[in-house]
Every structure is written in structure tokens, then in C-alpha cells.
Amino acid sequence: MPITLKSAKQIALLREAGQLVRATFDLLRDHVRPGVTTAELDAIAEEFIRSHGAEPVYKGYVPAGRRGPSKIPPFPGTICASINDVICHGIPSKKERLRQGDVIGVDIGLRLNGWIGDACETYPVGDVDDATHHLIEVTKQCLTLGIEQARAGNTLRKIGAVIQQHAESNGFSVVREYTGHGLGRNLHEEPSVLHYDDPRNTQKIMVGMVFTIEPMVNAGKASTRLEADGWTVRTSDGQRSVQFEHTLAITEEGPIILTA
């Protein structure tokens, strides 16, 4: 599938969707505390999104290539709720309560007026230990460094290279299997955005591109393990993982963060 470049008007509509994602995060932040279930967070997010005339795009989602009677069921939640060693795609649950010292990655995708907003934020639950705090801060820095490389004329490789270098220089590792992606009217479009250095990744960044950068940084090994539910992805060694994600649009002046 070719890369679809977006016009200034389309980018403005994508920013409206991105800002509703941001408002949903701002709302959820006050509810992330010990004792709350991930299903409760999911219900709060869904009610807020629908009350603003948008629809959750994760709910009922099945990735291309995973459809059919023998494949996994559609994703059941409005948000992905990924606690501690869950890297991504954690399913909200009435049984899963947040505990003091946890970290939870919340990924939100929605469609507003036909256009997608998508981002991820990791919240500490109360006070976290120093090692977890450092992992959170380094992952935020990885995202910032990646965004700084997202300029017309650069290759996508530069984004992945700077993320990998910063994570590994701090003793962490970067997940390989799950990447950033283009978006627009669809949740997943070209290009794929790797979070590690790959010399084959020679795609030039162009004005009008809209894509996510969403590094998943593990405290231990980069390897992953997919649960039997077909969605939940954990670290293979049980150590913690943290993710932050923004959607950005490439302009002549540089990247605009649509979900900031």
C-alpha cells in the first residue's frame, strides 16, 4: 500500500482527533490509583469519547491477516491497558485492579469526523521505585529524540537509530515486533516506523506524512511473549515495559505533534 500524504486541511482534522485523545488521557489521569480496575478505566474512556461524537477504534478491531473463524477474537476494549510486564494490547478486565507501585500503559485510538487519533501514555500508580521511574523517563526521552528526527529529508532509519541508542545506553532494550505506523482515515497505514536501527529502512520522510512513534522499552530483554488470548504481549523475562506514543504530521517547518 502506498504512503498517503495528507493536506493541511486533513492534518487539521487529524489534530482535532488527536486533541480528543489527549483530553481522554487528561481525564483518566485522575482515575489511575490503587484499587481501580482496568475495566473501570475503559468504561470512563469510552463514555467520554462517545460523548464527544467520536467512536473507539480499538473496540472490535481485528488486524488484517488475523481474520477468520480460526483467528483471534476482535479486541474487546476501548483502551489497551498494559500493566507492568505487559508490553502492549492488554485487555481491560473487571478482575485486574491497580496496585501501589504498578505502571500502566494506556493506549487510546478513536475516530472523530472520519479521522483517527492515536497515542499511548504510561502512568505510575502512586509512587514507583527508582528503577521504574528511570525506565519511564528514558522512554519519554526516546520518544522526544525520535520526534526530533522526524523531519522532511531524513530517513525513517534515523528515528529508530536514535531511540535504540538512547534506550540501550541506559541499560534497557527496545521491542522489535511492534512498530509505529501511518494513519489517517484508517488506524494502520504506511509507513511502518521501526524503533531500532535497520540499514534497510531507507524510506525518506516527506511533507504530508502522518505517523506514530511509539517506542516500547523493556527493563530487561527485548524478546516478547504473546498470551493465549491472541492480544496480550508480555516481556519474555517478566521484567517491566513502558511505552509512550504520539501521532505527528510532517510539515516544511518540522513535525507537528497532533496528540500533544
From TrEMBL:
A divalent metal cation 2 binds at residues 118, 181, 214, 245. Coiled coil: none annotated. Its cofactor is Co(2+); Zn(2+); Mn(2+); Fe(2+). Keywords: Aminopeptidase, Hydrolase, Metal-binding, Protease. InterPro entries: Creatinase/aminopeptidase-like, Pept_M24, Pept_M24_MAP, Pept_M24A_MAP1. Pfam families: Peptidase_M24. Belongs to the peptidase M24A family. Methionine aminopeptidase type 1 subfamily. Removes the N-terminal methionine from nascent proteins. The N-terminal methionine is often cleaved when the second residue in the primary sequence is small and uncharged (Met-Ala-, Cys, Gly, Pro, Ser, Thr, or Val). Requires deformylation of the N(alpha)-formylated initiator methionine before it can be hydrolyzed. This is Methionine aminopeptidase. It comes from Oscillochloris trichoides DG-6.
